[in-house]
Design brief:
single chain, Rossmann fold
């Protein structure tokens, strides 16, 4: 009799264990698998005058748009080393280039190294336009993003290429090209959404405001940091702007979601 009693209990225990294992397996199978970050790719562009421009492309899964990232003076594409992965996580592919007006602030500028010396700011406009020409083949909306002097150049490029740009972000723009109002005049022709920001320095804030004012677009925004805030795109780097980087990121990502979400 003891064997007759034990057999059903053993079967019941076995069935219960199998049922528990299946539920756990199903639960594990239902858990989402994080999408791995796609590796960045080296890119070489050719400007209109034949200069080779070195860049780094960061793909994004199901990209909403392609952001063209341009650095500040004495800098390089490595200004965006930590910014590109975060943009990819938010669904934005990006290309950062070494403009011919740059240096070693964040890492070697390969374009300048090949030329032997940096060029002036306006000469770098050709490099931005080479990036814009490259972007056409990616079949994505294109967003221009500039830092310091290139934050001003993006207005000149957008004005010269109507219909080719979806939106524009400018970090610490100013009239860097000879004392006139070339940037304000170009801004008056930019009819796409525009985001500007700067450090808390009153002159930088005023310069950004003056350039944004003539923009005819319905969507335009100036973010003035209340904490932290540093010159150019570095305002998004925690090591350079520990108090204000996250607030700046919140404003930038909200703008990008609005114009390309």
């Amino acid at each position: 009799m003891r064997g007759l009693v034990l057999i059903p209990l053993m079967l019941l225990a076995a069935c219960g264990g199998q049922s528990h294992k299946t539920a756990a397996d199903n639960s594990a199978a239902a858990a989402p698998t994080p999408t791995p970050m796609r590796a960045s790719e080296p890119v070489t562009l050719q400007a209109a005058d034949g200069v080779k421009v070195v860049g780094r492309y960061q793909p994004a899964t199901n990209a909403k748009a392609l952001i063209l990232l341009f650095h500040q003076a004495e800098s390089s594409k490595d200004e965006y080393r930590d910014i590109q992965p975060r943009l990819a996580e938010a669904g934005f592919a990006s290309l950062a280039i070494d403009q011919r007006a740059g240096g070693r602030l964040f890492g070697i500028n390969e374009t300048v190294a090949a030329l032997g010396k940096p060029a002036d700011y306006l000469a770098a406009k050709q490099d931005l336009e080479a990036a814009l020409a490259w972007a056409k083949d990616r079949k994505l909306p294109v967003i221009l993003w500039g830092s310091s002097y290139s934050a001003s150049l993006v207005f000149l490029v957008a004005a010269a290429h109507p219909g080719e740009v979806k939106a524009l972000l400018a970090f610490s723009p100013g009239e860097y090209f000879g004392g006139g109002r070339d940037v304000e005049n170009a801004a008056a022709k930019v009819d796409v959404p525009v985001f500007v920001t700067s450090s808390q320095d009153p002159q930088e804030v005023a310069d950004a405001r003056a350039i944004l004012k003539p923009v005819p677009a319905a969507v335009k925004q100036q973010f003035v940091p209340t904490k932290g805030g540093v010159h150019g795109s570095s305002t998004l780097l925690k090591e350079r702007n520990p108090e204000g980087a996250e607030a700046a990121w919140t404003a930038v990502l909200a703008f990008l979601s609005k114009v390309a979400g």
